[in-house]
Design goal:
Keywords: Membrane, Transmembrane, Transmembrane helix. The chain is an all-alpha fold. It has two domains: 261 residues, no CATH class; 72 residues. Helices cover 56% and strands 3% of the residues. It is built from 14 helices and three strands. It has a three-stranded mixed beta sheet with strand order 2-1-3. Helix 5 crosses helix 6 and helix 5 packs parallel to helix 7. It is elongated and about 85 Å long. The two termini are 46 Å apart. The model has no long low-confidence stretch (mean pLDDT 82).
Length: 370
């Protein structure tokens, strides 16, 4: 036998197979969901003596909210962004021109701690800082924007990676649609998640992330003296007032001082509608069992209808407001059920997929992704 008869065939380069497996679909979408949640959430500072597990479970709760109801999560950054802009205008009126939107976000996240004699230190939000400055109780904070960003542990590489991976998911869906290839419900779920996540990232762009140590403001007056100087204000409930800081050890993540106006409500409503519409694009998807197809379609209709109802603002008459609130309360219970059904159906769909689900779109491979 000659050497040529058993020599292996040598190949210099070979293209990848024109297909994808179930694991590929799951991995790409789970990765996009994970990195988006990891980078989009900007938690407020934890309390000084707060334990690891308390912080861990709070972050888990917010992560679950981000995945299951991302359009609801968008409300908080929008309102906090508005609060930060209001704070800047109010500080400018006081002559504090070095106060920026970053400072306001930092304050409303618990970045400034007030240390008084004989009293544990506690956070003061932007409204409280303005109140104390206006009464000459403290001097304007001198911390610079650069110092605040130094305290922030924002991962720019992770955010870039999240953007690239999200772009890959969106472009892949567009490519598959143009080539008439079936798109999985999981891919639509991920795409629908990306839209409010990008909105959240935009409005929280000036909010420091994962700050470990706050800025401590030392004063020589006591809380008792502050309450006396506050007069009648000290006898009223402190919630959402300049005296709000007196009763807490940390500022919660969902803290947003001003009530939503029509502008913020419209932004959240539009994002919610887009989120629901993306899910509805999978209307023609057929599941292995007919009842699952019905559940999928009904759930998507409910999602879209609830988001549409949520954008209606009736006239401020008692009867209409009472009726509207009743409808909204019922609608959101139905919304939760529909949301759960959608999340279940997203995975049940893998029991039986159209064959072309596993055919890869051609040109999309040139987009960088993992």
């Amino acid at each position: 036998m000659s050497a040529q008869s058993w020599a292996p065939t040598v190949v210099g380069w070979a293209p990848p197979p024109n297909g994808r497996g179930t694991i590929d679909i799951l991995f790409e979408n789970f990765l996009a969901l994970f990195v988006c949640v990891w980078t989009v959430l900007h938690h407020n500072l934890q309390a000084r003596h707060e334990g690891f597990w308390s912080v861990f479970f709070r972050k888990c709760r917010w992560a679950v909210l981000a995945v299951t109801a991302p359009e609801m999560l968008t409300l908080f950054p929008v309102m906090q962004w508005v609060a930060a802009n209001i704070s800047v205008r109010e500080m400018q009126a006081l002559g504090v021109h070095q106060w920026t939107k970053l400072h306001a976000f930092y304050a409303n996240a618990g970045g400034f701690m007030l240390q008084t004699p004989g009293f544990p230190r506690f956070p003061i939000n932007a409204t409280s800082v303005r109140y104390l400055i206006s009464y000459k109780l403290i001097s304007p904070p001198t911390i610079s924007k650069e110092d605040i960003w130094d305290r922030s542990k924002s991962d720019h590489f992770a955010k870039t990676f999240a953007f690239v991976q999200s772009g890959w998911i969106i472009l892949q869906i567009i490519a598959r649609a143009t080539q008439h290839l079936t798109i999985t419900p999981l891919e639509l779920f991920t795409a629908a998640f990306i839209v409010p996540s990008l909105t959240t990232a935009y409005f929280w762009a000036s909010k420091p992330q994962n700050v470990a140590e706050p800025t401590v403001i030392l004063v020589d007056w006591s809380i008792a003296e502050l309450l006396v100087s506050a007069g009648d204000v000290a006898n009223e409930p402190y919630v959402n007032t300049a005296m709000d800081f007196v009763q807490r050890s940390r500022i919660p993540n969902d803290y947003s001082p001003p009530p939503p106006t029509a502008t913020e409500a419209t932004v959240v409503w539009v994002v919610s509608i887009i989120h629901a519409v993306i899910h509805a694009l999978g209307w023609s998807f057929h599941f292995g069992i007919e009842i699952e197809t019905v559940v999928w379609r009904v759930s998507n209709l409910v999602l879209l209808a609830v988001m549409a109802i949520g954008g209606l603002v009736p006239k401020q008459t008692w009867i209409r407001r009472k009726l509207f609130n009743t409808i909204v309360n019922i609608a959101y219970v139905v919304y939760i059920i529909a949301r759960i059904c959608i999340m279940v159906e997203v995975f049940l769909a893998f029991q039986g997929m159209p064959e072309d689900v596993y055919v890869s779109a051609e040109w999309i491979r040139f987009w960088p992704h993992v």
